[in-house]
Amino acid sequence: MVFLRLKGVFTSSPVLANSVTSLACYALSDLIAQRADDTDIKGSHGNDIDKRRLLSVALCGPILSGICLTKLYRNLDRFLGSGHTFRVASRKILFMQIVYMPFSVPAFIFLSSTFNALFDGEGFTIACTEASAVTNQRWKEAYWTSWFVWPISDAFNFTVMQRRMPAARPTWDAIVMVGWNAYLSWRGIGGHSVTEFSCPARMDDV
């Protein structure tokens, strides 16, 4: 009964449903990442959780998973097939790794870094400049690492999830993102670099 209700919600409002779950999963991912950080990151009120960073990462969920992936998966079903066989899934896996991941990895780093800088009171131009510097330095390592994680996740997503609840495939990605972003943060690629990386332009002003 619960499964049927959830399936109905995702089928009737896929963008909204995936956006809500992605917001929660991305927030959880950074919460875990901050707890696991070796560095002592303090929030604006002296707490051990940086709420601005948490919000910066969480907002990427509805944008990248809730909207982008929901629309993308519909088009993949249309052009590459909507079946749940591994033959169909393999085409989608290759597309995701070769076409989508080179976009989504830098997009996540850029957006989270930009949001964090804006929440810290930086101007839009400076925020984007800092985010670009973070992205250029970090995204390649994150992309190559993604080959060890996301093809396995996508194989499940485009077979089991494709058959059981296709509208919720972006939510599955968001669930995997909990562990993925925690890893990126630990490596200093994702959320970790949101608060700790300073671009040369800012350093010159110090």
UniProtKB/TrEMBL annotation:
Entry keywords, A to Z: Membrane, Transmembrane, Transmembrane helix
Main location: membrane
InterPro entries in the record: Mpv17_PMP22
Segments forming a coiled coil: none
Keyword check for Cytoplasm: no
TM regions (residue ranges): 54-73, 93-111
Topology relative to the membrane: Multi-pass membrane protein
Subcellular locations according to the entry: Membrane
Recorded GO CC terms: cytoplasm; membrane
Family recorded in the similarity comment: Belongs to the peroxisomal membrane protein PXMP2/4 family.
Matches recorded under PANTHER family: PEROXISOMAL MEMBRANE PROTEIN 2, PXMP2 MPV17
Protein name: Protein Mpv17
Provenance organism: Perkinsus olseni
